[in-house]
Amino acid sequence: MQIPASRKIHRQCHSAVSYGPKLPIGKNGARIQTYLSSAIDDHSRLLLTSRFYDNQEEAIVEDTFHQAILRYGKFVETKGIQRSYSKKAYPWNNACIESFHALIKREWLNRFKIFNYNHAYRLVFQYIETFYNTVRIHSHCGYLSPDEYENLYRKNLDELETLAG
């Protein structure tokens, strides 16, 4: 039995692009500015995907959501996705993704000399999968990690479905 829509928590995902490190990927090893595009679930703060790009075009945000859908399937709601743009210097609309970008730079990326895209990708993957989603606690999640919060949410949904019969 399905839980009535009124009992489901509204889930919303945000994506944002932030400045990444300058990498020696240009002609003759020239250092080129990269951009980090990420998608996060506002409900649990679960980081769905994060990738580096060499441009800031709109298509990278679409690619970020596409990667999240490939990885999490129906978890990412694809119906009714709306583009919205925050006003300049107004980060409150997507504060959790902006916070993630600040954290990954401060807590992880700034510790390393990054040599190329593959190295950057491995570092981001390592941070997300071995720390951010699994260990790092969030006050929004009752001081649980995003994985623990998701598991608790699913357990509560299962109990509600059992009670609903």
From TrEMBL:
Chain ranges of the Integrase catalytic domain: 80-146
InterPro entries per the UniProt record, alphabetical: Integrase_cat-core, RNaseH-like_sf, RNaseH_sf, Transposase_IS3/IS150/IS904
A Pfam family this chain is assigned to: rve_3
Name of the protein: Integrase catalytic domain-containing protein
